[in-house]
DNA sequence: ATCCCTGCAAAGCCTTTGCAATGCA
DNA sequence: TGCATTGCAAAGGCTTTGCAGGGAT
């Protein structure tokens, strides 16, 4: 079963309706190799469904995030990126060209010390590195 | 020398001009115990300087960020938070009430493996935990 | 048949920008 | 005095909302 089908099943399993629009959005998410924004998804889906509205794209993305199958990344670049990739990984953003790369990291190492008396129930952890990729390295000695 | 004075000195040391507006913004940043947004700074400074403009606040905050004395936090809440605190720490956001807490973390543990061939020159690292604080803990068994 | 979902359009929110006037160095 | 900085107002970009019609279950 493809990723698209699996996600569609998950939608239905939660009592949500599977519409052609939602399937197209999920398809677009799977097609992107990495970290599209809502507008990029919107643009891609519009190629096949010219009547697709912003509302539908944003609503669907929000639902998928609530279902915990999609990760929302706010990188401070003015728009949110979405990440369907599974497994734990950190993100590496190039301050020059804006490209985003996945990098593995040791989840255990980052885990909050249980001795710290914050009392929070942790749901999610995001690790974001900023820097310059080889192509954008500033000229310094 | 107070934190305010120290930051003002740093401004001048970089050839920037020290205006009353900038001093007021720095003062407001120091007054806040934690993580104000640009609008919160704007509102506070306006109490004393009713003519303060958005442009000045946003420009000054951006400069301080460029000077690396202020950290910009994008928590996906629609607005950016600013953090004058020194030293490495992660942030803990409550998904219920939105409060933000600092938590210590082991910077070394998070460091990217140099064996990973990403080739980036890392400038900055942000670790953000999301969860529920004791007051907002969802009712579950 | 129900009511969730969609499309349209407009509003909302935070942030940035343009430009003339001001004032710091 | 020169030029960075300010204030004002408006624009900009992304996201959300309201509502009536339509479609999935």
Walk me through this protein's architecture.
Two copies of one chain form a homodimer. By secondary structure, chain A is an alpha+beta fold. In chain A, a hairpin with a 5-residue loop joins β1 and β2. In chain A, α1 crosses α2. The longest helix of chain A has 13 residues. Chain A is globular and about 45 Å long. The model of chain A has no long low-confidence stretch (mean pLDDT 88). Chains A and B meet through β3 and β5 of A and β3 and β5 of B. Chain B binds a DNA duplex (25 and 25 nucleotides) through α4.
Query: What's the tally of helices of chain A?
Result: 5
What is the name of the CATH architecture of the largest domain in chain A? Orthogonal Bundle
Number of strands of chain A: 5
What low-confidence regions of chain A span 5 or more consecutive residues with pLDDT below 50?
A: none
Characterize the main sheet of chain A. Answer: 3 strands, mixed
Structural class of chain A: alpha+beta
> How many domains of chain A?
2
Summarize the largest interface: chains and residue counts: A-B, 37 and 37 residues
